[in-house]
Amino acid sequence: MIIREVCNCPLEIVHDIIKGKWKTMIIYQLKNGNTSLAQLEREIDQITQKMLLQHLRELQSCGIVDKIKTEGYPLHVEYYLTARGRRLLDAVLIMQEIGIEYMVELGQTELLDRKGIPYPQKSG
Prior knowledge:
This protein is mostly helical. The chain has a single domain (10-115), classed as Arc Repressor Mutant, subunit A. It has helices at residues 10-18, 23-29, 37-43, 49-61, 83-105, 110-115; strands spanning 35-36, 65-70, 76-81. Strand 2 (65-70) and strand 3 form a beta hairpin.
């Protein structure tokens, strides 16, 4: 991941940090606290372990995510949001709400129903 050194707007830096197909979903999945790699893989449809690890490393390098390693065998690693990551989560939750609203407007609620994501019923 490359974060530009010279920018015209602070949002460019945030975009550099979260760009990619999976990063906002990883941040969202960490909303409830420490989560194992295996749990993240189960919760994020179609992500490969390679991509998950790459994005976790990138988010860690920006201070969004960190990890706890538990000694012993087998080695157990859990990921969590840092203070900066929790602040970014607020923005991700707003983005989720906007996505839900848009899906409802388009009548694309099957996915929301399947995943148990609540949404306001379309009036009319």
